[in-house]
Amino acid sequence: MTQNNGHCNLHKGVSVVVASHRKNNVPDLIHSLQKAAEKVDFPTQIIVVADYPTDEIKQERSSVTWIFVDDKSISRKRNCGVKNAQYEIIAFVDDDCKVDAHWLHRGYTFLTEMRKYCGVEGKTTIETDSAAPAMINQYKRLEKPGYRTNNIFYRKSNFLSVGGFDERFTVQREDLDLAFSLLENGEKIAFDSRIKVTHRFRKGEWWDLLKNCSNRRFDPLLYRKHKVRFRAQVGSPFSGSLLVLLVAHVAAIASLWGVAAHYFILADLFLVSVLTMRRAGRAALHLGYFIKEWVAVFAAPFVITSALLYGSFKYRMFLFL
Fold it and tell me: Where are the domains of the chain?
């Protein structure tokens, strides 16, 4: 038993915290977690903090600790889960993931053997599905290391030492903020590709691009708290293609009062089409899917610009490029 800065007494083991808002997905995750728990010789705890009623599913999965929080905020749900965690190591995973059979063993073993690290991030792989559209770039980003809480282990004592998740980050950047706070506190976070999670391919979410653009409203807050690390590890909120498209949109709008307006407009629409085909891959051959993606790509520069302006005013820290 270890003392955690006066907060609580922590036992050896792993508490898995899941912030859930996808009721239909969580049973598969729990099944994979229970399979992983069968392969370890240390105690484990699965905590699901959900923003939907859990009475029915609680009866089917009685070994899981279910907590209802009437709030969509991911950071608030995760903080609530950690508050109820019994063990010294906290593992975070999302409800649209499935863990490898050795996930718990490898995450726990790494942190018990490598005491110089406060946390370890694992490898995420996007699920493939022959019936799904081609995997688009917005999902590929999840395969790159980024301190994401869909696959990461932390010592609870270190998590609490920086105050946990900043609940102002309700849907995005809360994981980066936590990691940056720990790193700036002198801690180290490792990466181990053997700690594996499979991320579901979310079919039909053609609005994923616009959702991520909208969530950039939290970037000014992250920049305000961690200017140096933001510039070094995040960089511009705009991807290169979105920045080029924004310039094309602005040029097309500005040309409306000129004689060559139709050239600028056609060039702008052609660029949107090219970026849509690159983003959608072979799925662009399906007209309905192409139209939805085209609308999303066209709107994306306006959405991200509006989100950054909103965040800059709200958090009093201007961030654009």
Answer: 2-203, 206-314
